Amino acid sequence: MPEEIYLKYKKQVAKWMRRLYKKGLTTSLGGNISMRVDDQHIAITASETDKGRIKSSEIAIVTLDGQCLDDCLKVSIETGMHLAIYKARPDVDVVLHAHAPMASLFTATKQSINTALLAEAYTILGNTAYAEYAAPGSENLANNVANACRDANVVLMANHGVLAVGSSLLKAFDRIEVLENAAKMTALTSLLDDKRELNNVQIQQLRDLFG
Question: Could you give the count of Cα atoms lying within 13 Å of 109 in the half-sphere of its Cβ?
Fold first, then answer.
């Protein structure tokens, strides 16, 4: 594939990684984004890069077998996790892993993020999935998250962070942003006595309208 085609994907991944950092949804060296280029390659943020200033030259092209085509770059330790998700979900074109503060709070507790507090949250997120803890960069983590992703577009990674998948960078980013807001709502409404959730009829209406 011509290098200019790769460059187009690299620029997009870098742009949305910078946006993720600027929104306070990940840390300087934390989190990663990948995007499917074709049925054999993905573009993914390289390791040890400043996520607030990341450039297209710091995005690696990696084959689905894990071979990096940019020899000068050190691939993210979570590359295996991204690849496992793409193999499990052929419909997914973007994987976004972040360390959103409030959402990550719920990865260290036994309480779930309540997506039934707001219609937007339930429509965009549905029910979130949970991936059991495994060491970052490990094959176990890749398998745990890929399995959790089979039936959900948003995953809470135990004692680690959060992840969203989508058909575009915008959709995956929006899911992380809405998840962070849903986490805030869950935490704040836990302090109130008159919390009101969507009822079963209202949830079914949302399913009928938006799938």
Answer: 11
